[in-house]
Amino acid sequence: MAKCEQCIIKQFNSLKSLTKSELMRISSCKTSKIIKKGTVIFEEGDVLNGVYCVKDGICKLSKLSENGKDQIVKMVVKGQLLGQRSLISDASSNLQATALNDMEVCFIPKTEIIADLQKNPKFSFDVLKEMANDLKEADDVIVNMAQKSVRQRLAETLMYIHDSFGVNPDGTLSVLLSREDYASIVGTATESAIRVLSQFKKEGLISTIGKFIKIEDFNGLKRVE
User: Fold this and answer.
1) How far apart are CA 136 and CA 21, in angstroms?
2) pLDDT confidence of 8, banded at 50, 70, 90?
3) What is the 3-state secondary structure (H, E, C) of 45-92?
4) pLDDT tens-digit profile of 131-177?
5) Which of 65, 184, 196, 221 is exposed most, by the fewest CB atoms within 10 A?
6) d(CA 183, CA 165)
């Protein structure tokens, strides 16, 4: 099991602000887990007793609406922390986390890291900075839902996945999402997402290889209205 003080992943989140001795202590109490694709990591209403450091893989954070529809709020990727709000608040989770592919995570108990939050101001500041960024992203989602069309939101989602997660050797997006997932991200019905993706394909903006999507005209997606 990799040691936290030697793990390169810590450079991508607030754990980079911990001292070597703090990281060594955390390393001795963390647990590493392999999470299979489709597994629910935690559900809405769960009380999180720590944070997950994502070493590999991607998960979605989603919220179930009153009509039973899933709304994807965010995707958490390699290098990010999952559940860090539990360090600040004792409130139960308002989101569900589900693995989109096979993941490797390290779970750090809240009891071990809370003292560092109180004693290490740089670590505290970085945690708050990441949470502030989450709030900004949430604000952007709200504005996009209100002001942009489904076509624009779906085009931006495809470009975001391309820029954030890269492509496979054949040029297809490396993250395989279901059409239901795309609908959940942009806040529309699955049928609408399927229809818009079909339009993009007819317009030469994208192509498909099996279930995978390949962007053919990046600039064209930017111009979608």
Assistant:
1) 33
2) low
3) CCCCCEEEEEEECCEEEEEECCCCCEEEEEEECCCCEECHHHHCCCCC
4) 888 888 777 777 777 778 999 999 999 998 898 888 999 999 988 88
5) 65
6) 19
